[in-house]
Design goal:
72% of the residues lie in helices and 5% in strands. The protein has 151 residues and is mainly alpha-helical. Helix 4 packs across helix 5 and helix 6 packs across helix 7.
């Protein structure tokens, strides 16, 4: 038996692979939002972190990591530039694992500035799907997260 897979077999894996397809879609959506958000000075991933920090005010790093479905190391790395820019601030906890994150007034201003650009990209996505299909897809994405978290 040959160690090489056929192109047909590889195409099957690529076509059917949930991870590969989710990541392709995520990259395409991220590229659209990043391009549209460019005048605001934040990328879509940064805006998501700012929003999460604002919604889950003073949450610990572990809590915030769970909310955004990321490991703490990845979250810490992503937060550093936002803290450096003064958009977020660290709130010292009783120990290092209990540090909290808080959105600063400057962070609020950046979110407000990004709002119209975000809406433009969001409207493009929703229009492309259709409102009802978008709502259905959003629920399916939430279901996908639940399914893999149980695994």
């Amino acid at each position: 038996m040959s160690a090489k897979l056929t192109k047909a077999a590889m195409a099957y894996y690529a076509t059917e692979c949930a991870s590969f397809n989710f990541r392709k879609a995520a990259r395409a959506v991220t590229q659209l939002f990043d391009k549209t958000l460019q005048p605001s000075g934040v990328r879509s991933t940064q805006l998501g972190l700012l929003l999460a920090a604002g919604i889950y005010e003073k949450s610990t790093m572990s809590e915030l990591a769970e909310v955004i479905v990321a490991d703490r190391t990845t979250l810490t790395r992503a937060l550093k530039p936002l803290i450096r820019q003064g958009l977020l601030k660290n709130i010292p906890g009783k120990d290092k694992r209990k540090n909290g994150i808080s959105l600063t007034p400057k962070g609020h201003r950046v979110i407000r500035k990004a709002g119209p650009y975000w809406k433009k990209a969001q409207d493009q996505v929703v229009k492309g799907f259709g409102k009802e299909q978008w709502e259905d897809f959003r629920h399916k994405l939430a279901k996908a997260i639940q399914v893999v978290k149980k695994a």
